[in-house]
Design goal:
Chain B: InterPro entries: Na_symporter_ssu. The complex is a heterodimer. Chain A is mainly α. In chain A, 69% of the residues lie in helices and 1% in strands. Chain A contains 23 helices and four strands. Chain A has a two-stranded antiparallel ribbon with strand order 1-3. In chain A, α1 (3-24) runs parallel beside α18, α4 crosses α7 (114-146) and α6 packs antiparallel against α7 (114-146). The longest helix of chain A is centred in the first third of the chain and has 51 residues, at 151-201. In chain B, α1 runs antiparallel to α3 (50-80). Chain B has one domain (5-80). Chain B has helices at residues 5-35, 37-40, 50-80; strands at 44-45, 48-49. Helix content of chain B is 77%, strand content 5%. Chain B is mostly helical. The chains are: A mainly alpha, B mainly alpha. The interface between A and B is large, with 55 and 44 residues.
Chain lengths: 596, 86
């Protein structure tokens, strides 16, 4: 069967499944719309959190970023899993005990201030919108390739599907849809990885294959990879090259940001008890770890496969010839991806060969010139975001695997986008409208405005997704920085300190958000408009701190500001101290109240 | 409630458990994975070293251990101090 038709069948079938579940589990009441009536088992909740959490950034983008950088990008792996420890130990059980629906409700009540709630809503919306832009980048890449349509059309189709089930389903629909999406996503990620691990190392478990032996050479896989990339003038895969300060801050930003993102925290409002909130975080990380332990293997093995495809006779042989690329089936994926504009090559010196090497390395350039392959790298463009999607084709796997990966990549991007839209819509309708502007709004009107907010958010995100500030995972990392700098410190201090007051929390959140946002805009362009930036991440404003790593600094500023301001002003009232004490003990956690 | 000594003891124990868990959390990721990697470079693991393994896989496995330990320990602590959900 034709690959194109097969892609459509797999993607179409998975969509029918998701939309069917969304319709079946349609939300009737406000409580069901936001928190699924709290009837969700920790394992189910963990699986849904996994799908919600693992977005285009994890599925489509991350392994590609690891593949081309190696050890230095381990930061993504540690950062995006380590945050669950913070979530499980410092937030989830207490927020569940508090027993309301949204993150900003907690901040508003704990800091006894509508202003604090409003500031929290703004922080949530800024971080969530930035996050959705990253998802839309991934959706565009996936649809562009698999439906063979252009980026814009792909984005519009994806937006329509997310809208359909997020708007009509609410949290309950989204929860069960996301369980289905998790299954599709993890199958699609691991099956090609298993095939490739078998081919290269003979080990069916990719996570073990990564540290196993390369069958063809008999050497350890990582030693072989280090040697091959070094031969081509690139940094050795497993060694440390990046700036250490930036690595630490970046990892910390991703960790803190994970524990500050509204759509993940909201998940812990949907479990029945405080005890199960603790287990839920663990189950979520189990399901996430299945992908995260596989991702570094996918990256390393793809890098080796690509290097060997470009140098079929080994790195001391000849580069691949343009004739071979046209004639040999193994190279067919390159021509298909070339059409998307995300992969490119050019025979610059006209020798009929495409030489792939690091042309920033002077010794390697001299060596390549002496060998007659020219002074320039001729694999001119390899977008990191295509690696996972192209991976089954690179390894020459059966066409049903390719179609499965297409469905998986879309499941990842769409599930997260839906969860984020739900968080944005509840921030607008529940916190902003009902909480502040029109407190007497009826339940029906609240539900309607939640759906309208979702439609508005998806329109903005789709528009911004057409012109993203980086690869999917990098844009998403910016969103984490914003959440880290604004939301997490306020939540944590709200639980672990009785001294932080309304003024301290508001000042802390504002300083964290504004300073981080300005730092990002200075490096990525104001409102992400290209060309309006004064600095670049290669030569950043402060020390070696890139804009993607600044969230950790923003969080520290938030903590410091809140501490200083709170201590300079009056203590919180007695009933707030009591609220903090009641949040700290599980006894008495009931069902949440929709009103307050 | 602040007058109830058992709640204060409960919270103090919780803070101690959280602190130790976070020490391990930081040690395996920022420590073994990044800053202390040079100290572990002599220990070979499948073509690379122990620090590389911690950065790519080991830290994730330890994170899982920490969260499940904490859930188990806290649910036990709740019962010991009589503050569990009934």
């Amino acid at each position: 069967m034709d690959q194109f038709v097969l892609n459509w069948i797999f993607i179409g079938a998975s969509f029918v499944l998701y939309i069917g579940i969304a319709v079946w589990a349609r939300a009737g009441s406000t409580s069901e719309f936001y928190a699924a009536g709290r009837g969700v088992h920790p394992v189910v909740n963990g699986m849904a959190t996994g799908a919600d959490w693992m977005s285009a950034a994890s599925f489509i983008s991350m392994a590609g970023l690891i593949a081309f950088t190696g050890y230095d990008n381990s930061t993504f792996l540690m950062g995006w899993t380590g945050g669950y420890v913070l979530l499980a130990l410092m937030l989830a059980p207490y927020l569940r005990k508090f027993g309301k629906f949204t993150v900003s409700e907690f901040i508003g009540d704990r800091f006894y201030s509508p202003t604090a709630r409003l500031v929290a809503v703004i922080c949530l919306i800024v971080a969530s919108i930035t996050y959705v832009i990253g998802q839309m980048t991934g959706v565009g890449v996936a649809f562009g390739r698999f439906l063979e349509v252009d980026n814009t059309t792909g984005l519009l189709i994806g937006a329509a599907v997310v809208f359909a089930y997020a708007v009509f389903g609410g949290m309950k629909g989204v929860t069960y849809t996301q369980v289905a999406q998790y299954v599709v996503l993890i199958t699609a990620y691991t099956i090609p990885a298993i095939f490739i691990s078998m081919q290269l190392t003979g080990n069916p478990i990719p996570a073990l294959g990564l540290f196993g032996d390369h069958v063809a050479s008999g050497e350890p896989l990582l030693a072989k990879l280090d040697a091959v990339v070094a031969e081509l003038g690139f940094n050795e895969y497993t060694t440390h090259h990046a700036d250490t300060l930036n690595m630490v801050l970046f990892t910390l930003s991703l960790m803190i940001g994970t524990a500050g993102l509204p759509h993940v925290i909201m998940r812990f409002f949907t479990v029945p008890t405080v005890a199960s909130a603790r287990w839920s975080a663990g189950w979520a990380l189990v399901f996430i770890a299945l992908l995260y332990l596989t991702a570094p293997a996918v990256g390393a093995m793809a890098r080796l496969n690509i290097s060997e495809l470009m140098w079929p006779g080994g790195t001391d042989g000849e580069p691949v010839s343009t004739e071979m690329m046209e004639a040999d089936e193994k190279y067919a994926w390159m021509a298909t991806w070339q059409k998307t504009g995300l992969l490119g090559w050019e025979d610059k010196n006209g020798d009929g060969k495409i030489a792939y090497f690091n042309d920033k390395d002077a010794d390697k350039v001299a060596e390549m010139e002496a060998a007659g392959w020219g002074a320039e790298n001729e694999l001119t463009n390899f977008n990191r975001d295509i690696l996972v999607l192209a991976n089954p084709e690179i390894a020459n796997l059966p066409s049903w695997v390719i179609a499965l990966v297409a469905a998986g990549g879309l499941a990842a991007a769409l599930s997260t986008a839906a969860g984020l839209l739900l968080a944005i819509s509840s921030a607008v309708s529940h916190d902003l409208l009902k909480g502040q502007l029109t407190p007497n709004m009826s339940e029906a009107n609240e539900l309607l405005s939640a759906r309208l907010a979702m439609a508005g958010a998806i329109a903005v995100a789709t528009y911004l997704g057409l012109n993203p500030p980086g690869f999917a995972a990098q844009t998403v990392a910016l969103a984490f920085g914003l959440a880290a700098a604004s939301i997490f410190p306020a939540l944590m201090m709200g639980i672990f300190s009785k001294r932080i007051n309304n003024k301290g929390a508001v000042a802390g959140m504002l300083v964290g958000l504004v300073v981080t946002l300005v730092y990002i805009f200075l490096h990525k362009g104001w409102f992400f408009i290209p060309g309006t930036n004064s600095f670049t991440d290669a030569d950043p404003l402060l020390l070696t701190i890139k804009s993607t790593s600044f969230g950790a600094v923003g969080a520290m500023l938030n903590f410091a500001t809140a501490y200083v301001v709170s201590n300079a002003t009056e203590e919180p009232p007695a009933e707030i101290v009591e609220l903090v004490e009641s949040v700290r003990v599980p006894r008495g956690a009931g069902a949440a109240a929709a009103d307050h | 409630m602040s007058d109830k000594p058992e709640n204060n003891a409960y919270w103090a124990t919780n803070i101690k458990i959280v602190t130790w868990c976070l020490v391990i959390w930081a040690l395996v990721s920022f420590g073994f994975g990044i800053l202390l990697r040079p100290l572990l470079s002599g220990i070979a693991v499948g073509g690379s070293d122990l620090g590389f393994w911690f950065a790519q896989q080991g830290s994730i496995l330890v994170f899982l251990g920490i969260i499940f330990f904490y859930a188990w320990r806290m649910n036990k602590l709740d019962a010991e101090h009589g503050v569990d959900e009934q």
